[in-house]
Amino acid sequence: MIRKLLFFAALLLGFTLNVNAQSASSMKWSEICSGKMPADWYGSDEAQQIADNLLKYQKNSGGWMKNIEFHKAADTGGANEHSCLDNGATTMEMRYLAKVYQKTLVEKYKESFLKALDMLFTAEKGCGGWSQYWPLSGKGSYQDYITFNDDLMTNIMKILRDIAGNKGDFADIADEATRGKCQASFDKAVEVIIKCQVDDNGTPAAWCAQHDTITFLPMEGRPHELPSISGSESASLLSYLMTIEQPSEALQNTIHTAVAWLDAHKYKENAAVEDFTNANGEADRRIVERAGSAVWGRFIQLGGETGKQNYDVFFKKLKDRGKSRSYTQNGKTYTYTEYEIATKSYNPEKAYQPIFAIYDDNLQHLYYRYMYHYEDAPDSVDWKGCTVPTSLNALRRTKYQFMGSWPLNVIKNEYPNWKQRIENQQGAEGYTPHELSGTTYTNSDPNTTYHFEGGISVSNSNGKGYNKGKSETVKYSASTLYTASLPEGMKVGKVQFYGYDNYDEDAYIAAFNGNDYSATDYVFPAKNGDEMTYVSHTLTPASPIEGSFTFKLGKKQCCLIITVYEINNASGIQEVEHVLSDNAKVYCLQGIQVANPTKGIYIQNDKKYVVR
Predict the structure, then answer these.
(1) Predicted structure pTM score
(2) I want to staple 396 with a disulfide (CB 3.0 to 4.6 A). Which of 9, 137, 392, 495 is the partner?
(3) What sign does the dihedral 134-138-144-146 (CA atoms) show?
(4) How far is CA 608 from CA 405, 568, 600, 602, in A?
(5) Got the DSSP string for 129-172?
(6) Alpha-carbon distance 456 to 436, whole Å?
(7) CA geometry: angle at 310 spanning 309 and 311, to 5°?
(8) Strand pairing partners for 337?
(9) Which residues of the chain have pLDDT under 70?
């Protein structure tokens, strides 16, 4: 009987490993790096073999190249090539190594991770920000600019913030001094983002995909990526900036003004971009009517004196490099300089309209040529007598996202949510607010207890695991009793529930702190299609809450940010940290040493100490 059990156990283990192997090989590299495999898999032999492959192909400069599936790759080029930060390169590999290190504690994976981190420090510009590659080309290429394109900047900032936080996959992978460097690097990146916000004739606007490292002006990218304000990159930047806790007044102003500018510069209201098959049987895109939606340009032309100054800089650059491009049509060859292509096609009267260009090695006479039509428009004859298109073609429309609704969710959902959070912080006189959100979430216990910064946890008895909603909210299921456990000594004067109903039927707060409520007392309105209505409900208990409180939702799941308002202690807060020679942390609480305490709040002799 025992032999049979061992046989079946071995069979089951082999089956499980085979399933993991199959699922790993069928996944994208980005999915594996982001943690889509089971947690224990990152300690497996297979995971270590992949990590060894990363070490083998790590560049001498510290990073990796982009667009390589390292769990499948057999050869990834030489070690002397530049490291890449575009398309998630290097930061993805760092996240993978951190996961494997936490499960194995194999030192070589930590060393490789820290080598890549040192490269991030070295590659950051003096003003803040990073370029696509390190070392730089040094040839004035667009690849040397401060780059927001493809979330390059935010991917780096995310990992720096995670390392500085010393939690999850990054717990103790870097020492305290290195974590401090991560925070300093992160702060410098925030500063340069603020500096790069385009000044639209005295009005703060948004951002281009890349900016100059000295003037911070918007700059060109590839031949179809003209200096402009980007609806796509600006939306991604804003989305990330609104996750930063305790934003400075300068950063708050940047967010407010950038959202306002994008909201005022839609290309078309009640519209969306749709994929379709055109009359020629080609895959194509077009703009269609869609209630509640809107469309922006990927590249929005600058206007007024700001436009003139920026485009004069761009045109001079093209003139100074003096590059010519030729094209043969009907047996005749037409030769153009890049300078004349750009200056003669640019129309200053088209300010704030989307601009387009065609990047095709067979059509180099169209490089840097300004076009103002997205959908098919009649050709024209240019100043040299060459027949040229005035619009994008189906191939260009489908191969590149020139138009889209990128800022829509930022404006309609994320920004109102962020404003509410800022108001909560500013209106918390007499309280210390503790936000329970996707931003402050640290981890979950196997028994579905969610832990947040500040030592607060939320548990449930129905086996509901942690999941995020939109705008850094957390999903809470209906008819499930949740218990929020507070650190010792914390007294709570009120609790705010802010968020939206995730379904098409009204939800509500059914119970809080031992009190039941009706379906009409604290309502979260039903979704209308994809439209969510964010609402805020603040509940105040009859007496301060200590230890824990419970809550339950009625009817439907809601996605919420819960803010717990701790009553401030009139005696004040003291926090003293000492690091001993063995790096063990000891906190001195009123003269009493507490070795390696858990995060939270400690009260001794009417004094409050916060351990973070």
Answers:
(1) 0.80
(2) 392
(3) positive
(4) 48, 10, 10, 6
(5) ---SEES---S--GGGSEE-GGGHHHHHHHHHHHHHHT-GGGTT
(6) 8
(7) 95
(8) 324
(9) 1-22, 74-77, 569-612
